[in-house]
């Protein structure tokens, strides 16, 4: 960890100004400090936002929830309103990390988690995400946890968050305050970038931006599921995860949002897949067709080829469960 | 830089590099070596302490971020001659072997019972809206952030179950 | 006078059974427990040493010849006291019981991640930062890292070619001819390797995390060109070993070299990544199994030929077929072990070297044969138990293998299982049952101990033996308490310091039997002295509850001793019984798994292990050893796998987030049962090793259950979900 100047922000504007001047914002720090110890990230200045009043969950005028950026993952998962109205979010949070980490990791920080790519984590290896233009060793290397959708020749990393997958399925908005004091909201749908040839740029955040909240729209009557598939029973990153919000009316799928973890550089959503499902009577055959549509451009890297059938199988099972299909129906 | 921490009820001044993690502050500066470094990256749980009553990985936070915070370490829970109920249960149920993950397990378990009392769900909770029963599966899931390579897990679950009851 | 026993013949006196205190075997709590649970037991890096500087090891990211360390850049960084590297630095740790320096000199980088230097600074934070500025100039060498890309070296010590296996296979009514693979494993002890080196003139004290101090002292002295008498190692508490701390390792030498250079103590703790990259791995294996059987399932032939790997110049070769040699019959046998010399990190002992990976595969092959023959796997095994060692003809020591299987089958409800693979389903989950045998060769090692009995009714046990979580503090105290008639709370056990009499060290499951016997002998020595003081025969002396009874006299120890204290010394040596009897611990596992039919995720739902390992010295700590072993079985079967980058052999998953040791939720409540047994051929306390037995074969029971659940036979460990997907129902 290289030496850094440490400052505590007393107001969001302090943090924004600090960020504009090149400081890195630290909240829970569970990912940032992990990376700083390895000098994968080596900021010269840290601005600590933990004392800012961004730790509340409030109801919005629209009937949704405004989740302060500093709300710990544990609190968000345990919030009665979240458990009742947004169970997919609660489930996703609880599927992530450990009890200790969830107590520290924050809502805003979780959105900004960096990839777990082994080569990104090893500073002796080239990595376009860590050092733009240096190359990608994951391509041609061990790539079990890597992307099957949306990858580029520059980067095949995946986004490790569970929470962000649920946020995308819930069509949440990210509230951002900038150094000039302006505020904007960016839908999670638009918050992340695919790697293309700039994998070091992961989100729409710019210097001077501070995430202040994540806003959930008013809840809709729906079945919500989050299913995470991983290599051990707990405390492991997703190989594949599926978040589903499904509204059924008169035996048909009136509305559906699906988001996927473990497949791409960001939580993945494909509206064409949702369109294929909407208005249809649920059946495994339909779900299989939709999964094929989702995966039509999926490309394995060798070790991660299994994610293609695994995604299809998991997606079918999640939808079948959400739609109340019996086994084999 | 200067930081004041309330460690096990006692105010302690830390005058150190801003890079010092809370774990290294405890171990290297305050000589409280009960909190262990197993991975230094939040992947094993051996460094678990309670900050303001909540369990966290002390390796993944900076000491300077905790000015004024109340830190409870294993040394604050009990001493060899006066063990806390959880410490005592770990001894009786052989909830350890080498002992290196043990302080983290015990801090984690102690705080985890408070989380369960507060009605927090876990990923294995069937019904998110009800108060979860602390079944063996619930205990195991909630303790999965604490690796034990000796694998005393069944004994750890036994010890925690006993204290919970 | 030291009481010495060399095991040239079985000791059937069974003296521990005839003592009066009745504490041996009891499930007593660990005396070191209160220190461990309160965080006050000191591990290697935790000794408070004045003026101690902090070192961080420097790794090479490229194989080849080191041209320059480029020290200047690092030395200019704040707080840096120096960059150290020397011909004394180790390429890799010493192998277990080497007793001499391993390959030294780090000018030629033999594997990615090799430690080639040390940076020392005033603070850990400064040293860590400086370590990332390390940019040595290395002329790359294109070493081979694929074990199948080189011609392997056969290990003659394991080779057996008896009869005509090819002919037996040809003539067999039923046969199995399959290739299994297992991936490399990391010991991943929770405490990273750590040393503090303190010099006092020519004398070096190393506070380290080591398993076998009498060997480690020699290795350290040899590595540094010191007289052994000038070296002291202290390892009172060791945060897990599992083989990874058998031999002196890089951080110990580096700390000593730097402390010598700086004239002040230096502490070096490996990062978790460095532990993964530069400490011994268990080799990957490729195992060709052949079983030939007659119509009833009697083995006529058995082949077990393995390919393993190691670095050049490393003598250790994972003894994959170690138990295959004797577990089952079959007159036509071909067993071989072949080492590929490649440039992955050094391979060495990781818990139960040999059986850890050889037994599950043997037991998978037996399961395949049981299906081929159409008989119960338990019956197949019982049918093939040889009368004597099938290769050497020597008799077995105690062998309750069949009893373990029978007892396990009964307790588990084995007879009621579904026998049709893939035939039992609960919702999304496919349920399966499997069993496997456990076997681990039993070994002992020379050990000395000193026991002092005081007139106040307390005793002290001293040996340089370590307790790496195994329960040495507990069982050695229990042996002494039994022999001397004391409440175990009155016995203090001092371990982990080379100033104490040299014990066996912890490794190969030798510790409890070897050091327990040394303590037993030292107590016999004390008892003899009491008899002399009282003028009675040993047979007439009863010690119980701090009192001595002989004939009709009952007296306090103060009166019996005739002195303030009596000191006895014991020395135990392995002898001819090691050659005269095929000694092993045995057991059987029964397991129920659930495999998710959608995702291929496997969960172990219940597992039973029944073991016979001679006398159980403490039922509680022995059970914990077996819980640990069975959990290692879960890891081996399902999650653990060192991944090497095909391009340079580098360990890709070098941390605890990506190398998946089982977590609490992976492990159900496990059942452990011990059968009563006394192994007179092993040692005078009739015990056999238990620390590894509980792991040997465990993974096989789980993978056999996966086959029963799914009908998919995965011959490539670990059985991660991707290997099952294609065979699962849609």
From TrEMBL, chain A:
Keyword Flavoprotein: yes
Name listed for the protein in its UniProt record: Xanthine dehydrogenase
Statement: the UniProt record of this protein carries the keyword Flavoprotein: yes
Keywords: FAD, Flavoprotein
Highest taxon above the source species: Bacteria
PROSITE patterns tied to this protein: FAD_PCMH
GO molecular function, one term: oxidoreductase activity
Domain FAD-binding PCMH-type: start-end pairs: 1-221
SUPFAM superfamilies associated with the record: CO dehydrogenase flavoprotein C-terminal domain-like, FAD-binding/transporter-associated domain-like
Gene3D superfamilies cross-referenced by the UniProt entry: 3.30.465.10, CO dehydrogenase flavoprotein, C-terminal domain, Uridine Diphospho-n-acetylenolpyruvylglucosamine Reductase, domain 2
Pfam family, one: CO_deh_flav_C
Organism from which the protein derives: Pacificimonas flava
InterPro entries found in the cross-reference section: CO_DH_flav_C, CO_DH_flav_C_dom_sf, Diverse_Substr_Oxidored, FAD-bd_PCMH, FAD-bd_PCMH-like_sf, FAD-bd_PCMH_sub1, FAD-bd_PCMH_sub2, Mopterin_DH_FAD-bd
Automatic annotation (TrEMBL), chain B:
Domain 2Fe-2S ferredoxin-type: from-to ranges: 1-77
KW DNA repair (keyword) present: no
UniProt xrefs under Pfam families: Fer2, Fer2_2
Alphabetical UniProt keywords: 2Fe-2S, Iron, Iron-sulfur, Metal-binding, Oxidoreductase
Name recorded for this polypeptide: (2Fe-2S)-binding protein
GO molecular function, one term: metal ion binding
Species: Pacificimonas flava
Automatic annotation (TrEMBL), chain C:
Superkingdom, natural source: Bacteria
Coiled coil feature spans: none
Domain Aldehyde oxidase/xanthine dehydrogenase a/b hammerhead: 38-142
SMART domains: Ald_Xan_dh_C (SM01008)
Pfam families: Ald_Xan_dh_C (PF01315), MoCoBD_1 (PF02738), MoCoBD_2 (PF20256)
InterPro entries recorded: Ald_Oxase/Xan_DH_a/b, Ald_Oxase/Xan_DH_a/b_sf, Ald_Oxase/xanthine_DH-like, AldOxase/xan_DH_MoCoBD1, AldOxase/xan_DH_MoCoBD2, AldOxase/xan_DH_Mopterin-bd_sf
Entry protein name: Xanthine dehydrogenase family protein molybdopterin-binding subunit
